[in-house]
Design a protein that fits this description.
CATH class of the largest domain: Alpha Beta
Largest sheet: 7 strands, mixed
Order of helices and strands: HHEEEEHEHEEHHEHHHEEEHHEHEE
Number of strands: 14
Structural class: alpha+beta
CATH topology of the largest domain: Aminopeptidase
Number of domains: 2
Distance between the termini: 30 Å
Number of helices: 12
Low-confidence stretches: none
Helix content: 40-55%
Strand content: 15-25%
Length: 310
């Protein structure tokens, strides 16, 4: 899809009730190459096909079709008819991936009512689940369950000094700090190059593209400065009016080891008062990442399902 298509989506996609990071317009725009995603707008519906790979069936198939605002009655039936035709034309199975339990139920109901004899044997993969938090919890870190997080921030302050004197957070795009966001991303990229270098390069490049399209993607974020040096960055974009998707969060070196992630997480959450939830995406099965995400006590672990029409 071209930039005009995304401008249309930004104004017309029906986002109410959406929670998943895969349905954020910014995520779709920025990660097309990384996740080999095919996007089409047909019949006033957004269709997504994730090409994935043969060894990752949980990420291969059609995403849940997303309608524009004020959809006609039985729009999902129309969408499934299109998917059946498209799959036949492309000579591929009618498979779905990354569906929430609510979306799975809608597909099941539509198949039962309009396509008798067709059904799906659904499966799920824990690695694909989104971690969704109450914004207020990440901002305030209340109660005994967040004592360790408060301790991390206290340690950060002992090492680097007081906020406003030795370190500070500047919000984006309110402040002209795109260059500093890229500095953090570049240093993170240089530090993490290795077996997944191409994936990391694509992610670094996508941050550049994001900053070039801030208004279109309705990006917000910020930079953590320590002694006036960019030390951490974050960028996020809305999934819906209630949910903000944190797409990027980077730090490097001693800053990362000494608590920069905990501090930028809290500072950013304090500046997103209009959102009820922050979606901090999946853990991809990385043990350390899963432990870190669970330690922030998610309000919702959003299951994702995949399956093929029988």
């Amino acid at each position: 899809m071209n930039i005009q298509d995304f401008e249309y989506l930004s104004s017309n996609l029906e986002s109410s009730g959406l929670f998943g990071s895969d349905t954020s317009i910014a995520n779709l725009f920025l990660l097309q190459d990384k996740y080999n995603t095919e996007l089409k707008i047909q019949k006033n519906i957004l269709f997504r096909y994730y090409h994935g790979s043969q060894d990752s069936k949980n990420r291969t198939g059609y995403g849940f079709p997303l309608s524009m605002k004020n959809p006609p009655q039985d729009w999902l039936k129309t969408a499934l008819e299109y998917i059946f035709e498209d799959a036949k034309a492309q000579k591929r199975p009618v498979a779905f991936c990354l569906l929430t339990s609510e979306q799975k139920a809608l597909i099941n109901d539509c198949l039962a009512r309009h396509f008798p004899g067709r059904s799906i044997n659904w499966k799920t993969n824990r690695d694909d689940c989104d971690y969704i938090y109450l914004r207020s919890n990440l901002a305030d870190l209340p109660g005994s369950q967040y004592q360790k997080k408060r301790n991390h921030i206290s340690r950060f302050n002992r090492i680097y000094g007081a906020q406003g004197t030795n370190w500070d957070f500047k919000a984006y795009p309110e402040n002209d700090i795109a260059a500093d966001i890229l500095i953090v991303s570049q240093k993170w990229y240089e530090e993490n190059q290795g077996d997944s270098e191409e994936v990391l390069r694509l992610e670094h490049e996508s941050i550049k593209i994001a900053l070039e399209n801030t208004e279109l993607l309705r990006l917000r974020g910020g930079v953590l400065y320590i002694n006036e040096q960019p030390a951490a960055m974050t960028l996020a974009a809305p999934v819906s009016g209630d949910v903000l998707d944190v797409i990027y969060e980077k730090s490097f070196g001693d800053f990362a080891r000494n608590g920069a992630f905990a501090v930028i997480n809290q500072q950013f959450a304090r500046r997103c008062e209009s959102f009820l939830y922050l979606n901090r995406e999946e853990d991809m099965g990385v043990e350390g990442l899963r432990k870190a995400k669970l330690s922030y006590k998610p309000e919702i672990i959003l299951e994702k399902f995949y399956g093929e029409v029988l």
